[in-house]
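Page 42, continued from yesterday. The earlier attempt failed because a stray header line got pasted into the input along with the sequence. Redoing it now with the clean sequence only.
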Amino acid sequence: MNTTAQAFHHEYEQIRSLAEQYTEAGFQVSIEPDTGAIPFDLGDYRPDFIAVKGGTGIIVEVKPSSARISVERFHALAEEVARHPGWRFVLVTPDDVESDSVPGLAADLPAWQKLIEGVGRSRHLIDAGEYEPALLYLWGIFEGGLRKRAMEAAIPVERFPVRRAVDHMYSLGEISVKDYDLVLAALAARNRLSHGAIAGSDNQIVHARLAEDFGLLVSRLLETWRQPAH
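This time it went through. Structure tokens are written below.
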């Protein structure tokens, strides 16, 4: 089997596996549906499959990688789908973060108020001088908010690896240039700490400032992102 055939076979198997997940969750699935199976006009676009249950419809596009995807193109498509109550567009790749729910359902994402309350709890860690735990805690809140905003704004990157999700949210204006640099600094610290790096006295000073600045940023972003997307 040549490389092209292998890639096609792998993608087909992923589509079939995903379709089975939706079926097990009670959805009625149509693989490579005719355009007439979608109750609104998407031009000549044809998804890999659609899944329907009750008043919920999910249009699923499967790609072999999250790299080199034109998210802007799929964002426009996702916005059109989101205009129809109960429907949403989902982009799925093998690189996706793991989730307890099938793609397109936000069952494992907390409410905005819960995320905002979490920022308040991180303040106690900072005040106690626990800067590294505060950074790790704040990163979890930020990432949850980032993925939730992506879903609500019809930007189909909520399942992407976090760095790619951040980059796409930045390119689409959800994160400013100044904020982007701070997010990357926090991500670098989170990666070091989560892989067992031990903070020395110099790093503690850096982490103290970073925890303060990142906490303020996360609080501000959550307040912005919780507003309805236009």
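Notes: The chain has a mean pLDDT of 89.
Reminder to self: strip header lines before submitting.
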